[in-house]
Structure formats: C-alpha cells, structure tokens
C-alpha cells in the first residue's frame, strides 16, 4: 500500500448527516472509484439478520467489524489507478473503538498504511441532517462524533479541509480543486 505522501486514497469524513454519501455518489458519477461507508454496510447486514454488532447495542463489536471492513476495502483497491474516495474509513472506525474501549486510535492504526494526507470533513449541517434506520443518533451525538474525528485526524497528522455548505456538484468541484 502507498505511503502518506503518495496515497491516492482520499477520505470523506466528518459529521453524520453532513452530505458525505451524496458527495461520494457525485464523485462516482464523475467516474472516480468510490467506497461506501463501512458502518452503513455493517448496520444494513446486521439488521437483515439477528446481528448484535450495531453501534447502539455493542459499539466495540461494531467498531472492530468496521475496522476489518475498512482494511479489506483498502486491500482490494491498493493498486487502483487515480483517486479513490472513501466514505469514512479506518480512522473513523478506530476513533469509535477508542471511544468505547481503552485502546488508542493511533495504536490501532500503527500497522495500517495511511490515506492521502488531505481529509475532507463535512461540518455539522442541521438543515440536511436526518435520522433513518441506519443512523439512529441525534444531531447532538453527530456533532460530538464530528468533534472527536476532527481532533483525531489532526492528532494523526492529516490536513483537514472543511467542506463548505454548498450544493453537491460544487462540493465535488471543491474537493477536486483542492487535491494535490
């Protein structure tokens, strides 16, 4: 896997309900490789069965599973050409595990290749936040999660770029203009 300076794996992170998935879909529509959020995939799978690895039931189990899914995503796209955009990823899952256990995110991630040094964060945006079957937490919970992620990405040495609250096409243009 590529190192920090050469990685073309770009993370979209930030506040739940801030428009990450919509932005990811737009980047996919423009021909870029995209990777959906591990957490949403896990929740959908767990809800189809009798799963217990749900963030509102067993956050440590959910976070550990999200780490494994994110690692698998990275391995499967390690040789991809061009930019690859991830809706969340390893750091987000490690921060969730850190929150629910005594494990530090940095130690969880020490064996993993880093993503691109620039990480794009969606800020809290109450006007578009919505609860659904896979996102059951409140806006206040989402803001607290955003604050944890912003701090973690800084502590891990990533350059965080806050996405403006603009239309999805303009957001995609913003991301593409700022990548280097």
UniProtKB/TrEMBL annotation:
Residues 10-171 form the NadR/Ttd14 AAA domain. Gene3D superfamilies: P-loop containing nucleotide triphosphate hydrolases. It comes from the Bacteria. Pfam families: AAA_28. InterPro entries: NadR/Ttd14_AAA_dom, P-loop_NTPase. Signal peptide: none annotated. This is ATPase.
């Amino acid at each position: 896997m590529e190192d920090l300076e050469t990685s073309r794996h770009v993370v979209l992170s930030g506040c739940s309900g801030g428009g990450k998935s919509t932005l990811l879909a737009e980047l996919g529509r423009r021909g870029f490789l995209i990777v959906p959020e591990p957490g949403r995939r896990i929740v959908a799978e767990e809800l189809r069965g009798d799963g217990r690895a749900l963030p509102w039931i067993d956050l440590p189990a959910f976070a550990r599973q999200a780490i494994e899914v994110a690692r698998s995503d990275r391995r499967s796209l390690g040789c991809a050409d061009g930019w690859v955009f991830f809706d969340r990823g390893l750091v987000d899952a490690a921060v969730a595990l850190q929150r629910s256990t005594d494990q530090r995110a940095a130690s969880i991630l020490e064996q993993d290749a880093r993503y691109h040094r620039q990480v794009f964060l969606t800020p809290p945006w109450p006007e578009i936040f919505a609860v659904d079957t896979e996102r059951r937490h409140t806006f206040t919970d989402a803001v607290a999660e955003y604050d944890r992620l912003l701090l973690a990405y800084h502590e891990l040495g990533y350059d965080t770029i806050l996405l403006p609250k603009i239309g999805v096409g303009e957001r995609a243009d913003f991301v593409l203009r700022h990548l280097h």
